[in-house]
Specification:
- This protein has ten helices and 19 strands.
- By secondary structure, it is an alpha+beta fold.
- The longest helix is centred in the middle third of the chain and has 39 residues.
- It starts with 9 loop residues before the first helix and ends with a strand.
Length: about 525
C-alpha cells in the first residue's frame, strides 16, 4: 500500500506561491507578445483595466481623478497587476493539493480576459481573444510544470520535494518571461515609432484665418497665477484610455455618416490639411472639475471648421429641418461622445483640430485629429483620436457617459478660481497690498466681471486681464490691503450675459459643479 505524501512544509508553500506568480508572469508576457501582433489594446491588462473603468461608479472615478490626477490609470494598472499576483500566488498554493482546480482557475482568469477584450467598444474581431487565450494556456502549462517539479519525490536523505530542480525551472521561466516582455516592448515600440514618425513629419499649414494676437494685458504680471496659455505638457488629460492610442497619421481616416447625411464622406488627414485652416484660442474644461479645480486649460488650436465639413456632406441642423440632433464622435479606442448638432453648426468655432499651441497634437491629447467645441464640457464635445462622426438623435442613441449618470447635454457653467494665495498660506503683508489673483471662465459667453470678498465683507471688483475672446478664460487680480489674522477669501464671476455665478454648491454630477471657490489664509505683520 502506497503511503500518503507528507504534508507540504512552509517552504513548500512559499515555493508553490512563487510558482503561481512565475506562471502568471509568463502568461502575461506571452499575452503581451501576442497583443503586439493583434492589437495592444487587446492585451489582458489593458482590456481588464478598461472593463474596470467602464464599470466603476462615477463617484469612484471622480475620486480617482481628484486623488491621482493624470496618474489614475497608472495606479489602476498597478492595482490590477498586484491583484493578479495575489490570485496567481493563491492558485499556486491550491495546485499543491488540487492541481486540476488550480488549472481551472487559470482558465477562468483567461476567460475573463477574453470577455473583457471582445466586449471592448473598439473590438471588431474575434482575434482580440487571442492574447488572453495564449496567456492563459501558457500560464496553465507553466504552473503544471513548476508544481510537478516542486512535488517530485526525492530520496529520504534529501528534502521531500525537488526544490533545487524547481528553482532552476523557475529561473528559466523568469528569464523566458522577461525576454518575451522585452521583445513585446521592442515590437510595440516599432509600431509606435511609425506613429511618432508620422507626427514628426507633419507640417502644419499656415492658417487662412489666424487667431488674433493675445492682447498684451491678457497675462497679468502676478506671481502664482495660471499662465494665460496652458503649455501642452501641463494641459489636463482626462479620458478612459488605459493605453494612449498612437495613431499613424498616414493611415488615419475619418468617416462622416448617419441620419441626415446625404453625401457620406471619408476624409484623410492630407485632405483636411488642404481645406481652409483656422486658428482659435479656446479654453476647455472637464465636467469632473470641482469648484477651484485644475481640470481646465487654455490653448491655441489649429484645424478646420466642423460646420463647413458637415454642410459639404449635406447636413442641416434641426433649426433648418435636419433630422439629426446629435453628432456622435467615435474614438479609435471605442469612446463615444455626443454633441448637439445645433451647437456645432450655430456659428461658434467648432473645430476638427490637428494642432495645439503651434505643434501637432500630442498623442495624449488626440493626435492626429480631435474635436474642440467651445462652450461645452469636454465629455460632450472634445472627442480625442477621432475616427468617425455619426449623425443621429439623442432619443436613438446614448453616448458613453449618459448611461453612467451624466447629462446628455452640458454647457459649461460660469466658474472662477483663486490661484494665489494658496489655501492655508501664511502671508507677510508688510504694509503692502496682497495680490489675490486667478482665472475665471464662461466659454462662449465670456467673463465681464470678477469680484472678491474678504470674510463676510462686501464684494469688491477685481481688475480684469484683457479679454482675448468669449471662448477663453480671463485672468483677474484684486489688491487686498491685508490685515493680520485668519481670513477667508472668496471669488465669484459674472458672465457676458450679466448672470452672476451661483453660490449654490452642487456636485460635478450630472452636468458640472457649481459654487464659489474660497481659500483660508493667515496674515502676519512680519
Amino acid at each position: 500500500m502506497t503511503a500518503a505524501p507528507p504534508p507540504p512544509t512552509r517552504t513548500d508553500r512559499l515555493l508553490a506561491a512563487l510558482a503561481g506568480i512565475l506562471a502568471g508572469y509568463g502568461g502575461l508576457a506571452v499575452a503581451a507578445l501576442v497583443a503586439v501582433v493583434v492589437r495592444p489594446e487587446a492585451g489582458p491588462v489593458p482590456a481588464v483595466g478598461d472593463a474596470v473603468v467602464d464599470r466603476t461608479p462615477a463617484g469612484v472615478k471622480d475620486w480617482a481623478i481628484r486623488t491621482f490626477g493624470e496618474s489614475d490609470k497608472a495606479v489602476l494598472e498597478f492595482g490590477i497587476l498586484v491583484l493578479l499576483a495575489l490570485i496567481a500566488a493563491g492558485l499556486g498554493l491550491l495546485a499543491l493539493r488540487r492541481r486540476a482546480a488550480a488549472l481551472a482557475g487559470v482558465g477562468l482568469l483567461g476567460a475573463l480576459g477574453v470577455l473583457a477584450a471582445v466586449t471592448r467598444p473598439d473590438s471588431t474581431s474575434a482575434g482580440d481573444a487571442l492574447p488572453s487565450l495564449a496567456g492563459a494556456a501558457t500560464a496553465a502549462a507553466l504552473l503544471y510544470v513548476l508544481i510537478a517539479r516542486l512535488t517530485r519525490p526525492r530520496p529520504a536523505a534529501a528534502p521531500r520535494t525537488d526544490r533545487r530542480g524547481f528553482l532552476l525551472a523557475g529561473a528559466g521561466v523568469a528569464a523566458g518571461a522577461t525576454a518575451a516582455t522585452f521583445l513585446a516592448r521592442s515590437l510595440g515600440s516599432t509600431r509606435s515609432e511609425h506613429a511618432a514618425a508620422s507626427r514628426s513629419a507633419l507640417r502644419l499649414p499656415r492658417p487662412a484665418s489666424p487667431a488674433p494676437a493675445v492682447p498684451p494685458g491678457a497675462q497679468l504680471p502676478v506671481e502664482g497665477i495660471s499662465p494665460f496659455v496652458t503649455p501642452n505638457k501641463d494641459f489636463y488629460r482626462v479620458d478612459t484610455a488605459l493605453v494612449v492610442p498612437r495613431v499613424d497619421a498616414d493611415t488615419w481616416k475619418l468617416r462622416v455618416h448617419g441620419s441626415g447625411v446625404p453625401r457620406e464622406r471619408v476624409f484623410t488627414l492630407p485632405e483636411l490639411l488642404r481645406r481652409e485652416v483656422v486658428e482659435r484660442d479656446i479654453t476647455l474644461a472637464c465636467v469632473s472639475n470641482e469648484v477651484g479645480g485644475s481640470l481646465v486649460g487654455n490653448a491655441r488650436w489649429l484645424g478646420v471648421r466642423l460646420d463647413a465639413l458637415l454642410r459639404e456632406c449635406g447636413v442641416r441642423p434641426p433649426s433648418q429641418g435636419g433630422p439629426a440632433d446629435q453628432l456622435v464622435a467615435r474614438s479609435v479606442d471605442g469612446m463615444t461622445i455626443g454633441t448637439p448638432v445645433e451647437a456645432v453648426m450655430d456659428g461658434r468655432d467648432a473645430l476638427l483640430a490637428f494642432g495645439m499651441n503651434g505643434e501637432p497634437l500630442p498623442f495624449a491629447h488626440g493626435f492626429p485629429v480631435r474635436m474642440v467645441v467651445p462652450g461645452l464640457y469636454g465629455y460632450v464635445s472634445a472627442c480625442k483620436w477621432l475616427s468617425s462622426l455619426e449623425l443621429t438623435t439623442f432619443a436613438a442613441y446614448d453616448a458613453y457617459w449618459v448611461p453612467r449618470g451624466w447629462s446628455a447635454q452640458a454647457p459649461v457653467k460660469t466658474q472662477s478660481r483663486i490661484d494665489t494665495p494658496r489655501p492655508l498660506a501664511r502671508i507677510t503683508a508688510g504694509g503692502r497690498p496682497v495680490a489675490v489673483a486667478g482665472v475665471a471662465w464662461a466659454q462662449h459667453r465670456g467673463v465681464s466681471r470678477v469680484q472678491v470678498r474678504v470674510d463676510d465683507g462686501p464684494w469688491q471688483d477685481a481688475e480684469l486681464g484683457a479679454e482675448d475672446g468669449r471662448d477663453t478664460w480671463r485672468q483677474w487680480v484684486h489688491r487686498w490691503p491685508a490685515t493680520p489674522g485668519k481670513h477667508t477669501l472668496t471669488v465669484r464671476a459674472t458672465d457676458g450675459t450679466g448672470a452672476v455665478q451661483t453660490d449654490r454648491r452642487a456636485d460635478v454630477m450630472p452636468d458640472g459643479a457649481t459654487g464659489l471657490h474660497s481659500v483660508e489664509v493667515t496674515v502676519t505683520e512680519d
